[in-house]
Amino acid sequence: LAKTTQPISMDSYEGQEVNITCSHNNIATNDYITWYQQFPSQGPRFIIQGYKTKVTNEVASLFIPADRKSSTLSLPRVSLSDTAVYYCPRISNFGNEKLTFGTGTRLTIIP
Amino acid sequence: NAGVTQTPKFRILKIGQSMTLQCTQDMNHNYMYWYRQDPGMGLKLIYYSVGAGITDKGEVPNGYNVSRSTTEDFPLRLELAAPSQTSVYFCASSLEPDDSGEQYFGPGTRLTVT
Asked: What is the pLDDT of residues B48-78, one digit of tens each?
């Protein structure tokens, strides 16, 4: 059973870099690693996706080691508006292997 | 593009009533999904569809039904509403299968069953 594990919550001060790590047990060879962000009262929003090494976009960076058993979402110089829940969904083995969003990491940015 | 739209935004149902949550996407995505999110929890997949005419159960399908007669629409039907179905419901769609593609989410429908 593919499973991801991430911290339940994190706090950080404005302006700092925040790194959220997710472990990906039993990730399949052809699975991509994706991260989503969810603000209160909104649906999740795709942030970034990668297969291995490093991916960067205008929002975040994603670091994936060679063994792909973990990934780290890096948010540079966070602001109060980055307060949200961050998910690294896993592939569930029911049906046709669909994404399952766990409880995510609740990131709180402190002024 | 409007993306993924859901109606209604809010609804209160009495126990035993039925209703349909509407979901429409204008991105020509084949894949569509229904999730529920209970307070403080993650999302759980209810049903999904890989194309018009094809639907399948997710993790928590009991008490719900879906249909997919067109690429754009994926309504979720609640029969005999129960308090345990109080939740926020999100519809999503994707161009690729969800193990490699980005899912686009709607704004959600907040449902209360009393």
From this structure: 998 999 999 988 999 999 999 999 999 999 9
